């Protein structure tokens, strides 16, 4: 194994480990947070930390995995494309869902400290 | 370590089977129909993982769009246009708890038995024995003998479009008839032509911007899935449903008027017919050549066989195209994406316009 | 031993995460909660698909992860369109 392959393998495993940690943290947050808008934070960790990071890690790992032969570049390329899609699409999806849930009052907003958006709407600065 | 390595797919399969069984059960007894649709979407994602672990990526590529994407979309549209809650009195809560407990126990026992049998025999998953028929198919699609092979390393596409081409042709015509039926139901209904402000319609500016960035990338991925269908998992239908995401995103995030700038319904029908004509031409091209030159040939013939010496070239300039398979995949891609475009456009026309036409007909 | 066999230690963590998302998705008091957990579930499954593609050493099955990501996003869009209570095409 060449030095560059060794570095790629180590970085890949570190990223996959970060992903595993983020999955556990996000799962706990998803179950223990009180309402929908707080759970959005856990969803951020799940999408970016728990999925985007390990996919990049897996692609790096695949690049250094010489037993696969030339097909490993296909695997790494597919992984990078999936990661880029996830990086762009997951936050946008969460944003659309949160906006719809807020304005349609579908989500419970019960343990509430302050709602700045509601005040802005009342003042007339923000329209739906 | 290596025992654990063997065991991990079993662990994943057991958890997936358990979770999908529970979500299916909850989807059946749920009164809120939207929640039922979401539960069935959970079950579909888990089934995708099961199919993936059993090494059938072609099925995954069909199953995910159809059951995670299109089925919930159409059901959500139907629920939105009708009633949200089911009106039937269901079973009581204690009964449902008992049934759920039984389901969990049964799944756990069967998973345990699976693990046990694996520990005894080490030969269930994935099976290393291939039956004679499967071995024959695999050998002839992968075997580079010009007289027997379909000249495609992807055995699924070879079987679907070469060995069993007539079956696939009739499946395609079933979907064509379904689209024709939808068009007949929605006759005289047109997308209303009106001036509209792009900012005032659709969803927020963030969604619009991301969609503008993503649509070309999604199209590239879809076209590559379709055009590499004879080399890697995928094919015409798989690429077509992936490209159908873009149509639904344009309609739902911008508006149907914005999408109608790119897709007129009549143009979509025309392109779909072009795709179907492509399929028919590719199916009969050897027959036509044989008829003109006076040689023996068959319908859906791809490569030359022993008794019928006509066939299409399997490579151009060193690039493998597998004869008719490339034409089939391209035409099917066009037909499928345009079919779904027609369906989404018809379903998203505002209800007032539809009702106007229907009332006008009734009176 | 091959380098990918060390992935065995990480896969159970992803499974625990997925099980927790499923619990929230089935429990979720409101519809947006369920959709959000299906999001997390789908993205975690996409990551798991890529990991299994390396783990089982079959590179050609990678396209499934891309398609899964796309359709989970499309499910988001459908559900937020449903919640907005507008006409579908407007």
Automatic annotation (TrEMBL), chain A:
> Where, by residue number, does the polypeptide cross the bilayer?
6-28, 40-65, 71-90
User: Tell me, what is one Gene Ontology molecular-function annotation carried by this entry?
Assistant: sodium:proton antiporter activity
- Among its keywords, does the record have Membrane? yes
Recorded hits in InterPro entries, A to Z, give: PhaG_MnhG_YufB (IPR005133)
Query: Pfam families per the record?
Result: PhaG_MnhG_YufB
Cite the PANTHER family for this sequence. Answer: ANTIPORTER SUBUNIT MNHG2-RELATED (PTHR34703:SF1)
Q: Which NCBIfam families match?
A: CPA3_mnhG_phaG
Q: What is this protein called?
A: Cation:proton antiporter
TrEMBL record, chain B:
Q: Where are the transmembrane segments?
A: 7-29, 36-54, 60-79, 99-125, 173-189, 210-231, 237-258, 270-292, 326-349
Please, which domain of life does this record's source organism belong to?
Archaea
Write out the annotated subcellular location.
Answer: Cell membrane
Per UniProt, residues of the Na+/H+ antiporter MnhB subunit-related protein domain are 208-340
Q: Which InterPro entries match?
A: CPA3_antiporter_subunitB, MnhB, MrpA_C/MbhD
Q: What is this protein called?
A: DUF4040 domain-containing protein
Q: Pull one GO CC term from this UniProt entry.
A: plasma membrane
Using the record's annotation, list all stretches that form the MrpA C-terminal/MbhD domain: 21-83
Q: Which PANTHER family match?
A: NA(+)/H(+) ANTIPORTER SUBUNIT B (PTHR33932), NA(+)_H(+) ANTIPORTER SUBUNIT B (PTHR33932:SF4)
Q: What is its main location?
A: membrane
How would you describe this protein's topology in the membrane?
A: Multi-pass membrane protein
Q: Keywords on this record?
A: Cell membrane, Membrane, Transmembrane, Transmembrane helix
What is the phylogenetic placement of the source species in the record?
Archaea, Thermoproteota, Thermoprotei, Desulfurococcales, Desulfurococcaceae
């Amino acid at each position: 194994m060449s030095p560059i392959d060794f570095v790629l393998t180590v970085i890949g495993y570190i990223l996959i480990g970060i992903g595993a940690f983020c999955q556990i943290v996000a799962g706990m947050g998803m179950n223990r947070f009180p309402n929908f808008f707080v759970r959005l934070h856990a969803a951020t960790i799940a999408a970016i930390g728990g999925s985007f990071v390990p996919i990049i890690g897996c692609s790096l790992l695949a690049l250094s995995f010489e037993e696969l032969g030339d097909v490993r570049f296909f695997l790494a390329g597919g992984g990078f494309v999936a990661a880029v899609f996830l990086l762009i699409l997951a936050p946008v999806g969460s944003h659309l869902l949160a906006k719809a849930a807020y304005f349609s009052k579908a989500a419970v907003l019960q343990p509430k400290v302050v709602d700045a958006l509601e005040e802005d709407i009342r003042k007339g600065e923000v329209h739906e | 370590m290596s025992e654990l390595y063997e065991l991990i797919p079993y662990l994943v399969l057991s958890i997936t089977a358990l979770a999908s069984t529970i979500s299916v059960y909850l989807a059946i007894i749920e009164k809120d129909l939207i929640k039922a649709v979401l539960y069935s979407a959970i079950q579909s994602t888990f089934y995708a993982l099961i199919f993936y672990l059993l090494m059938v990526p072609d099925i995954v590529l069909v199953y995910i769009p159809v059951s995670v994407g299109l089925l919930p979309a159409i059901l959500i549209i139907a629920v939105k246009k009708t009633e949200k809650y089911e009106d039937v009195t269901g079973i009581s809560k204690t009964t449902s708890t008992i049934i759920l407990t039984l389901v969990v126990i049964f799944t756990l026992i069967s998973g345990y038995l699976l693990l046990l049998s694996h520990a005894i025999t080490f030969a269930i998953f994935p099976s290393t024995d291939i039956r004679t028929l499967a071995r024959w198919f695999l050998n002839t699609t992968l075997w580079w003998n010009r007289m027997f092979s379909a000249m495609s390393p992807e055995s699924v596409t070879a079987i679907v479009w070469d060995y069993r081409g007539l079956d696939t042709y009739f499946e395609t015509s079933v979907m064509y008839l379904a689209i024709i039926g939808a068009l007949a139901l929605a006759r005289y209904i047109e997308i209303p032509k009106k001036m509209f402000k792009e900012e005032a319609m659709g969803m927020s500016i963030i969604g619009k911007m991301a969609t503008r960035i993503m649509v070309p990338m999604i199209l590239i991925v879809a076209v590559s899935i379709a055009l590499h269908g004879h080399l890697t998992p995928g094919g015409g239908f798989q690429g077509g449903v992936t490209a159908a995401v873009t149509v639904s995103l344009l309609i739902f995030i911008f508006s149907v008027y914005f999408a109608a700038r790119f897709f007129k319904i009549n143009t979509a029908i025309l392109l779909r017919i072009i795709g179907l004509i492509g399929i028919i031409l590719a199916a009969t091209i050897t027959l036509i050549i044989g008829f003109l030159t006076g040689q023996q040939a068959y319908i859906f013939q791809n490569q030359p066989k022993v008794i019928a010496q006509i066939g299409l070239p399997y490579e151009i300039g060193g690039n493998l195209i597998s004869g008719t398979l490339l034409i089939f995949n391209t035409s099917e891609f066009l037909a499928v994406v345009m079919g779904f475009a027609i369906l989404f456009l018809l379903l998203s026309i505002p209800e007032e316009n539809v009702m106007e036409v229907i009332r006008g007909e009734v009176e | 031993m091959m380098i990918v066999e060390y992935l065995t230690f990480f896969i159970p963590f992803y499974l625990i995460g997925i099980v927790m998302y499923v619990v929230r998705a089935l429990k979720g008091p409101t519809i947006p909660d369920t959709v959000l957990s299906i999001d997390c579930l789908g993205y975690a499954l996409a990551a798991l698909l890529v990991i299994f593609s390396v783990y089982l050493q079959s590179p050609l099955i990678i396209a499934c992860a891309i398609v899964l990501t796309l359709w989970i996003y499309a499910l988001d869009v459908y559900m937020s369109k449903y919640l907005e209570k507008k006409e579908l095409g407007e």
